[in-house]
Amino acid sequence: MYTKPDKPAEDMDAAVCGDACGTMPACAPLAVPYVPFQQKEPKKYDHTEALENGTLFPGLNLPFHLKAKAANVPMTPLSELQALEFVLVELGLYLDTHQDDAQAMELYRQYAALEKEGRARYEAAYGPITQAATAQSKSWAWLKDPWPWNYQEGGDK
User: Fold this and answer.
1) How confident is residue 47, by pLDDT bands cut at 50, 70 and 90?
2) Cα dihedral sign for 133, 134, 137, 141?
3) DSSP type of residue 69
């Protein structure tokens, strides 16, 4: 419960107040978050639909969210890799709360294998995509142009 401090905020010593001790303006009502409960073995989008909708799970695709126009991103080796990585994050978050969902764990393994293969193909064609991947190279190739996110419509990147 929020309690109003004895002193005005401007009189309080910032060094004494931790992160959780700030004051709340009277015009700032508290929000009540809503997160739908996920059933076991929920329906899932494929990886490109997941990236377009901002979630792997249709049940979490809430209509009041404005989604970015991910569909406008050209389908490139990099965007394919990003979609696979997005699904891995989504499945990982789901598995944090549904550890006994064997179907989701198997799907996670499948997507992890696809991401690993996709990353290897991408790096073989375009070079390291992360600084850590440069450790597997013969030289420091991280700063070679073009950068992975510098793609042009109609091109390979």
Assistant:
1) confident
2) positive
3) -
